[in-house]
């Protein structure tokens, strides 16, 4: 236990205490609070992503007539709730001067909403609307993200802030990736699962994710109790001491960030999250349509695919810092982040020689299977069984249609596997290969963590040392908006128009954003500071013309005199 405690508690080095702003105990308490914020950000992302691969088969089981378009609304309900309530929760936290009460309320709501999602079987009617309601409430609870980002800006020194913001991005990204992996891990419970309340409530592969959220939410709630979480706001104290001013506001009031660069990065963040969430939303129905996988197979395979994606993403987080030491951050963002995301979308454009397997009704299946003996049907191979082209899945030694567990529809027919004929494009569009899907997902798993981390990091540097709560709230809002619009818009495009329009539009979207970032690359740089002022956050306002005129008027001795004077007057440009 003591070893675990030492791993969780960050102890200061000698250099960390040289500024005299805090004691060693206060330093440890401050970083403990920051790490609790990391866990909170992870949980908020996990609460959104843990149901993404399972929500479609769960919805289809509860209400077979809900459809994929309603799926888009369910996935989008979470970010809509977060987008609406983030400013209100942020204002509440500012009003109180503390984030503890807003976060305790948010986490309590998170656990209650997750419990509703896990107990949908208890509602006799309108289960899909209760699912929508529970996801909206989880989004409302996730509005605490803006408060967390605001506290992070206040609880870190200037030299620590970029690293802290990067770790938050890592925590959120891992939450998005680990969620579907946990969904896959609980597939061992199956669709029937274990009875909790006889004939009414079960612990199965769908409801288990809700109970995981409940337990993790309760743990997070306990971490914000007063004897664990102690608020330590050091940014204002640091600024006032270094600048010798009465308030932090006076320190950065004269600084003017590059607003065009800031809004460019916010827009790029919107596009990046839009594309990433879309893939997580449609990955399960896409694989079921293209590869004729059952619900259980889709969850199982996607869990493993996303587990490998999590490993790739984690490796990329470790490589970002070394890459940025060899190449400019803007170049790594453009070519390592956005270019790979463009490739990931372009690869998904159909390239198979055959169309996807159509999921025909049972009566059409029986008629098709009664072919003449001299006609050899085309057999589509999968990792479990074989699939007759355009037919319901059957075993290779076919002796009649055999429904598997959980494939009964509401009307008692066998649940046909493959691309549903109700999607007209299934009859005319070429299919996607498994190799395409895996390569595209690999590009996404590599490009997304690079993009989201460097956008946040560069954004922090473009803004300078000022408190970044409001700006981080705007960026969080842009991510919420993309998470709300992405699933609704693109699931509709996918259902009505198919693969070409879906992945073609997203590839063009990513490519256009990449080109704009390339045009703006020279402006995506930190505000220059005066390095001679012991770390004070002062802006260099001297122009190149002034520097040139000074060089003409100053002799070598005069230059030494000027340098000596500049140390006393703290003139920018001497760094």
UniProtKB/TrEMBL annotation:
Residues 562-575 have a biased composition (Polar residues). Residues 547-556 have a biased composition (Basic and acidic residues). The keyword Transmembrane helix applies. It is a multi-pass membrane protein. The lineage of its organism: Eukaryota, Metazoa, Ecdysozoa, Arthropoda, Hexapoda. It is found in: Endomembrane system. PANTHER family: INNER MEMBRANE TRANSPORT PROTEIN YAJR (PTHR23510), MAJOR FACILITATOR SUPERFAMILY DOMAIN-CONTAINING PROTEIN 8 (PTHR23510:SF3). Its main location: membrane. Keywords: Membrane, Transmembrane, Transmembrane helix, Transport. It comes from Anopheles merus. One of its GO terms (cellular component) is lysosomal membrane. This is Major facilitator superfamily (MFS) profile domain-containing protein. The chain crosses the membrane at residues 36-58, 70-89, 101-123, 129-152, 164-190, 210-229, 259-278, 298-320, 438-459, 471-493, 499-518. Residues 543-575 are annotated as: Disordered. Residues 33-522 form the Major facilitator superfamily (MFS) profile domain. It comes from the Eukaryota.
